[in-house]
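=== Structural record ===
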Amino acid sequence: MKDSVLRPRRTGVDSVLKVHSSELFIKREDRIFFSQGTKIRKLLGIYKNLESKLRSGEIQKVILQGNLHSNAILAGSLFFKFVEVPTKILGYSRDPKLITPASIISKRFSEMELYPTRKEWGEVVEDTTKSLPPNEVLIPEYLFTTSALQGLMSLWEEIDPMKYDRIILDVGSGLTWISSILWGKLPMTGICLGMEKEKFIPWIKLRLSSLRLPNIDLPWESLIDPREKIEGDFSYGKKGNIWLEKSSEYQKRFGIYLEPIYAAKSISMIESMMKKRELEGRILYIYQGGILQGGVSSIL
């Protein structure tokens, strides 16, 4: 099982939709390790950067930080469990009664240190950073590191730019979006589902220095706020009945389960834009995974 996560297989591409003279393809990152997709590519980059110190025992524990219920915490807990690295979650949860796949898996596989507010958590992270034992490593929130960015390059190495005219992907933390720009072999459209575009731009600008990319010229015009294209609740993390129904509809039409928090929303917007000829040509959507957040009973 350790080899299966450290050596993920190349993911396939499915043609799912033709509108006018255009065609939509889906890159099946959801097929990587419990549907953790691009998060696993990021974690592989982080692991490879730490591997020699992990093997020598110089590093004995990895600390993941952030919202207990996030995809990054879920993927990190799973990944480090299967590569046999002791893990601690330094996280926060505003609702102590909330139970999600991420919280269930994290509590099962990791040591926990939780706080009730993001402010209190942030203060503890600052103190922890200053007093971190030499045999522990604190991974930034959202896996937002240069090594994770390097791990994502394996995704683009699998894509033949001669086969497509445009890449489309969901934008959460923005790391995968940035990696696509660094690759730079096709036009790219990012769908702002993690936060609204007007909030995302200043947010990501503050974090570019941590990637050692303070002077990168990012194409802000390539970002789309889905609220400007179709109707629906695009609040972060919300799936709602309309998106659950869309997810079910797409599964029947395409034979692919598109999770309702990100993918079903994006495909709905893409299809609408294709019908209006706002998107044309051979379009490749990067399905980044995340199915476990819709249910975890299959692995417990």
